[in-house]
Amino acid sequence: MAIEIKVPTVGESISEVTLVKWLKKEGEWADRDEVIAELESEKATFEINAEQAGAVHQVAKENDTLAIGDLVCTIDTEAEKPASAAPAAEKAPEASKPEAPKAEAPKQEAKAAPATDVKATPVAAAIIADKKVDSKNITPTGSNGKIVKQDVLELLNNPGRKPGTELFGRTDRPEKMSNLRKTISRRLVEAKNTTAMLTTFNEVDMGPIMEIRKKHKDKFKEVHGVNLGFMSFFTKACCYALQQFPSVNAYIDGENIIYHDYCDVSIAVSAPKGLVVPVIRNAESLSMAGIESAVVDLATKAKNNKLTIEEMTGGTFTITNGGIFGSMMSTPIINIPQSAILGMHNIVERPMAVNGQVVIKPMMYVALSYDHRIIDGRESVGFLVTVKNLLENPALLLFGKDPVSTLLEL
Q1: How many CA atoms lie within 13 A of 48 on its CB side?
Q2: Is the separation of the CB atoms in 264 and 283 below 8 Å?
Q3: Does domain 2-76 have CATH number 2.40.50.100?
Q4: Extended strands (E) in 206-328
Q5: Is 376 a catalytic residue?
Q6: Would the pTM count as exceeding 0.70?
Q7: Is the pLDDT of residue 8 over 50?
Q8: Which of the following is catalytic: 33, 64, 134, 372?
Q9: Where are the domains of the chain?
Q10: Hey, how many other C-beta atoms are within 10 angstroms of the C-beta on 135?
């Protein structure tokens, strides 16, 4: 009996997917619930599993665009399952390995081959034998097609290409744009065309945070099982600032402004197939360790193409860290329908004036891109200054403001 495996429904707004990769070859056996192929929608990559055990017979091909409900493959449940001992039997010769003298015999023949089959000078022949160079890859320049010493050295110094050839060719490679890349392109253009985007900048002295990390990172890792990174400090600071400036945590829906009493912070992650923005839910309620754990979990899933659509939907504010790639300053594009995005950059030691003295400090430029239709200059600048103050005074992250002021209810 053959059962049909079709493209499942993956989201209300998704009508088609791309078959990215077959994980089972034509006719190969698949156990029940085993992953047989990877599909990619405009938002995420997901897997399809074998509903029953049997032999897989492919219908769709890799890179085919399929509609929801289209047939991907069939599974012959009446096919004979291959003997479980077969893989082990195939590996047996490798596992047993021939005795050392037999293994060396071919190498001795290979050494001797250049001397009889290849025209080479004595020095060149000696280098070929010593370095075990394949003489077929050597371009001879000596008289009568003889290989000279320089020919062998040229090959050894330029592995992977023939001497005298160009390192790069002039070939054009057309490659189909993935659904994810199409979505990224569409959303970025839509953000530029539909929002009144503006960017404000500031700089942060990262010295206090770096000192805390240096002092507590080992104990933090021991207690919580995750590294103490910069992202938890920035997320905490942003959550407090978002509560002080609610318009930065809101978005426009028709003629309404939707405000949020929670902070679902999206973090931009560079995945193999493009930029994705998974969401840390209720970041305002998480501890530092909770935020770091969420970041590690989402980043790992992104790199392995395991993020679900739910994990990338519904953020209220985004943080992106171009500093890990060496970016000094940028104007990040808003992740619509959100109204603002914070850009982190690399940390550079710069001379700063402190009380009339020049002091070298580790500084980071930060940028807030925002939709001016909903966020005014006062809110945008106030938000970024609040984030700056919280980061430069990490003790304030405990309450979101000065502990003494909190005590005195000022």
Answers
A1: 31
A2: yes
A3: yes
A4: 251-253, 256-258, 265-267, 269-271, 274-276, 279-280, 317-321
A5: yes
A6: no
A7: yes
A8: 372
A9: 2-76, 98-157, 181-407
A10: 19
